[in-house]
Amino acid sequence: MMSKAGESPEAAFERRFAALLNEYAAVADWPFDANQVAGTAALGGPRRRNLMPFRAAFVPLLIACLAVAAIAGALVAARLLRPEPPPVPFAPDEVLVNILTDRREGRTDVVAVSAGDGELRPISVDGIVLSISPDRTRFVATGVDASLTVISAHGDAIAQVTREATRATWSPDGRRLLITSVWSGPEYALWDLETNAIRRLPISPYVPSAAAGGVTLTWIKERLGLTSWAPDGRHVLLPTQGGLVVADLDGVRVRPIPGTTRDSVGYWSPTGDRILHENREDGYLAMLSVDADFATEVLEVLSTGSPRFPEWSPDALEIAFITDDSLVVADRDNLAGARVVLRENVRDASYPRWSPDSKQLAFLARGIFGDPGFAGLYVVSREGGNARVVLAPFHADGSESFDW
Amino acid sequence: MSGAEQSLSVLARAASGDEIAFAQLVEAHHADMRRVSYVVCADADLVDEAVQQAWQIAWRKLGTVRHPDRLRAWLVSVAVNETRQLMRRGRRHPEVELRPGWAADFDTDPAADVRLIDLAAALRRLSSEDRALLAMRYVTGLNATEISAVTGGTPSGVRTRLARLLRRMREDLNDV
Predict the structure, then answer these.
(1) Tens digits of per-residue pLDDT, A104-122?
(2) How does pLDDT run across A349-399, given as a tens digit for each residue?
């Protein structure tokens, strides 16, 4: 490295040493290891091969070898140049569900269930589904060791982050995952799947209250850590101790959302002009408008029936959510006018999931046969009517995670 | 409200048990504490533990910090103390830890990675106290006065030790 003009050798070393020490110390910024998982090619390009040069002792042998090499080279080139087949997505009617296959060991397998005929397709073992990518070619799941793995629709592991991660949400373009982790204190991080780089955002999700004379940073409430991307792919909505904040991808706070608290979760609409604010502690939903500068205005508040677990329809026109005793769907401009879609088996249901075409809803009902360990997967039209049992009963691990 | 008044207000609120203010302090100083702790112990797992404990101490003793401009140095020194205590308790010694990113960097600049490995080896030959001193000065940017306020001694004494350490580092890293 060059010295600056007029700088003494000692001062130049001090400057270089400071830079080097900071690079070394940056290991502590993110102790996660991101790996592309061996044996798959979905994220990596074809491997380069080292061709060893050789010397010919005899001309005829050289010619023969050259001919063989030319043919082999052509074959290799043809293989390398052949474009990768496009990844196969999940079928539009496939819902990903966790099934507890070994209660004693706590092993949870992931299966794809057809919402049409209930046909099962095993995808992977030992994982809990978090969410399907926007293009439906991959999903992200946590493993028993809480590592995070991106898996193809056929069950091939593509990439993995070791260490604890509890939630991950896809960017709208499917190139990044926003991770919520509890490894070294709650933290948010961005995982770029194309470069495999991970960096922590300088925003802490939560600092819990003092308990038993101390404070711990490793505890996170179940409902917190739910993040949401703006459709622009450049901003995210993060729950923090002080309420919801809009942050950019460097973790810089762009704007806090007024009226939100540490018990708030935000859901950005697919169109970007609304945020649905859920406060499960106080039991209400609030619809907010969002302008270009992320200033918000409360349009409507709904508190009757303890509304919870809201989910935007992919077409951004409606919101499905659970109330005291019903699965309901509301127009985005009229939460209070929500229509009941279903009253049966929804008492212990959590997040409903929309089908990609916004025409149906799936939900997991727990407590089938009076046993909280059994669950059923139901599908119902957005217009209501009888719910179809797609998969029931099955052993569930108690996690709320499934996705359509 | 000026920046200094704002810092004072956040510190006062956090010291009186305001969790939101405390969260602001965590956001502002957590990364610095982790980095310094890592330079001292070179063990990411131990860093997690040490910084956790440091925040527990901070939660209890924040009220003893009277001036917000001394807060950063104080928090970093608490993290250093916890790190050193954990090292002593577990008889852990710093080890050269290669992160995956370093390996990836070999594709572009192998020399940079060799320098990091050399640096890790050179740091390992220092006492934990000396590593902490280097980290407080060059990672968090604390000056000699701030360092001496939390480690004891005088600013000139800190400057002398730093100069000696830098000379040693220069020799160990063959940077002559």
Answers:
(1) 776 778 889 999 888 889 8
(2) 778 999 999 999 998 887 766 776 778 888 999 988 888 888 877 776 655
Q: What pTM does this model have?
A: 0.70
pLDDT bracket for residue A3 (50, 70, 90)? low
- Return the number of other C-beta atoms located less than 10 Å from residue A323's C-beta: 20
Per-residue CA distances from B112 to A12, A20, A140, B101, B156 (Å): 17, 9, 34, 12, 33
Rounded to an integer, what distance in angstroms lies between the CA atom of residue B55 and that of residue A355? 45
Instruction: Cite the beta strand spans of A84-119 per DSSP E.
Output: 94-102, 107-114
Q: Which residue do the tokens 């939460």 mark?
A: A335
Question: Is there a contact between B166 and A218 if contact means CB atoms under 8 Å apart?
Answer: no
Q: Are A188 and A238 in contact (CB under 8 A)?
A: yes
Give just the sign of the alpha carbon dihedral A14, A15, A18, A23.
negative
Radius of gyration of chain B (CA): 17
Give, in degrees to the nearest 5, the angle at Cα A237 between A234 and A243: 150
Q: What is the pLDDT of residue B92?
A: 54
Give the CA-trace dihedral at A49, A53, A54, A59, to 10 degrees.
110
> 3-class SS at A72?
helix
Exposure letters A90-124 (e unless 16+ CB within 10 A, then b): bbebbbbbbbbbeeeeeebbbbbbebeeeeebebb
Contacting residues of B for A17, CB less than 8 Å apart: 138, 166, 169-170, 173, 175
CB B60 to CB A213 under 8 A? yes
The ipTM, to two decimals, is 0.88
Interface A-B, measured as beta-carbon pairs within 8 A, has a size of 119
d(CA A127, CA A109) in angstroms, rounded, equals: 6
Instruction: Write out chain B residues lying below 8 Å of A204, CB-based.
Output: 23, 26-27, 30
Q: Which residues of chain B have pLDDT under 70?
A: 1, 91-112, 176
Query: What residues have CB less than 8 Å from A228, skipping those under 6 apart?
Result: A169, A236, A237, A266, A267, A268, A275
Q: Which of residues 253-312 of A touch B (CB under 8 A)?
A: 262
Q: Residue B16: list chain A partners with CB under 8 A.
A: none
Measured CA to CA, the distance from residue A392 to residue A96 in angstroms comes to: 14
Average pLDDT taken over every residue of chain A: 80
Helix axes B155-172, B110-124, angle to 10 degrees: 130
Confidence label for A174 from pLDDT (cuts 50, 70 and 90): very high
Is pLDDT of A17 > 80? yes
* Residue A68 pLDDT: 79
What is the amino acid identity at position B76? V
